[in-house]
Amino acid sequence: MPRTDSCDQNAKATALRMPVPLAACDCSPSMRRELEGHIHTLTRENEKLKKWNREYSSDLEKARKRIKYLEQYWYSGEEFIEFYTKWDKEVNELRKQVEKRDHLLRHYQDLWKEAVLQCQEQMEEDSAKIKALEEKVLRLNARLETDSRNSSLPVSRTPIGKKKPMPNSRQKTDRPRGGQEGHAKASLAGFEESEITETEAHTADICPECGSSSLEKGGEDIIKDETDCKVVLIKRRHRFYVYRCLCCGKTFHSPIPLHLKEKNQYGENLKALALSLTDQGYVSIGRTRDMIHGLCNGQIKPSEGYIAKLQKTASAALESFINDLYSHVEKHYFAWVKDFSLPVTNNLSERSLRGIKSKQKISGQFWSTENAGHYAKIQSYMETCRRNGISPHHAMVRLMNGNPYSVDELLGLSGA
Questions:
Q1: 186-192 contacts: CB < 8 A, separation 24 or more?
Q2: 236 to each of 72, 275, 297, how far by Cα in Å?
């Protein structure tokens, strides 16, 4: 009987290989416990297969010895065939179990790899989010730490509750803020008799102690002076007489000033007040109208269109002043080279430009570049007058009266 080698086929258990250690996987706890259970089950099945393999090898060795023994008695073939058939059936069943467990092990290994890849992708996504949040936190912290010391922000933009970095060269002491005890008190001086425009006498009718009305003056009077102001409404009527020349017979009237164009119009003081509020006080046109209405006890309330038109009127009246100012600047542009009392920087001019941003924040943006040009001309005139000791309001009164200050007049060069 020929010798078969089918019994020599030995079933080998598949070794368990993990692509990534379980501790290195940053997955959810539930997925991790499920994977640990599968791996533990496969490990036990693998140990069983190894045990069966050892038993199978031992039994196979015994079968080989028995076959060698039976080969000596070839005439007992039926017994050998029965034994071999039985043993081959057991070997096939064992081989099927090994293949089934190998397939199951490969399936769980694929699941494990897929879970690890998902965990790695989730970790990369979370890392990108964390990095973006860290960068955002750094930007926000930088904004919180920004103040007048490390940026162009003014001290006035310091948030409430945060210490303002005020530059101060004085040394800090234990004394409280404000006026110190015993310091000289500043107060208004009393009026001279020639300065008094109104006198008000205050009398008493009864004694505050006993209530008696029998009183007489007994001592030096107590004098208290008071400085106050009030807006007086003026309704002025201009009368221009009509004449006839006896020589030529021509009929004419006395000259009418240019600012008296309509039958009734607002005077130069009211116009100057409106311009001062809008261009020097940065008050909006609507609030300027309301303030004038309140100052005049409700008797005057100019329209917003009229106040807006005043900007254009004043700008047109300043054309000659602005041209003379340009000529003077060009002529004396390098005066600071010879006159060391003049500043060598334009810091003063830059400070004057801050008012434009204040007006934009308080009163809103300009409607057009033309309106911005009107404001720039009026501001140049007011600032030049102020730096030369002229009240801006008084300068606006002269402007509305048709007689604005000239550059030569402000600089004292008219007689030079």
A1: 188/225, 188/227, 190/223, 190/225, 191/225
A2: 154, 21, 18
Distance, in Å, from the CA atom of 396 to the CA atom of 272, rounded to the nearest integer, reads 5
The two three-digit tokens of residue 33, written as one number: 């416990």
The amino acid present at 261, given as its one-letter code, is: K
Using the predicted structure, report yes or no on whether residue 153 has a pLDDT greater than 90.
Answer: no
Which residues, including other chains, have CB under 8 Å from residue 386's CB and lie 6 or more apart?
A: 392
Cα 99 from Cα 45, distance rounded (Å): 12
Max mean pLDDT among 86-90, 177-181, 188-192, 382-386 falls in: 382-386
Q: Is 352 within 8 Å of 392 (Cβ atoms)?
A: no
Q: Hey, CA dihedral for 153, 155, 157, 161, is it positive or negative?
A: positive
**pLDDT for residue 11:** 35
| DSSP 8-state symbol, 307 | H
Q: How many CA atoms lie within 13 A of 302 on its CB side?
A: 23
Instruction: End-to-end CA distance of the chain: give it in Å, rounded.
Output: 146
Type of residue numbered 287: R
Q: What is the pLDDT of residues 198-215, one digit of tens each?
A: 888 888 888 888 888 888
Q: Residue 23: what pLDDT? A: 47
Task: Phi first, then psi: give them for residue 253, nearest 5 degrees.
Answer: -120, 165
Residue 278 is given by DSSP the state: I
Q: Tell me which of 60-64, 194-198, 204-208, 235-239 is least confident.
A: 60-64
- Residue 242 phi, psi dihedral angles, 5° rounding: -100, 130
Query: Residue 242: enclosing H or E segment and its boundaries?
Result: strand 242-244
Q: Where in the chain are the domains? A: 6-140, 263-411
Q: How far is CA 261 from CA 256, 392, 396, in A?
A: 8, 25, 19
Residues 6+ apart with CB under 8 A from 242: 251, 252, 253
User: From CA 215, how far away is CA 213, in angstroms rounded?
Assistant: 6
Strand 251-253 vs strand 242-244: parallel, antiparallel, or unpaired? antiparallel
Burial of 270 (0-12, 13-18, 19+ CB in 10 A): buried
Averaged confidence pLDDT in the chain: 81
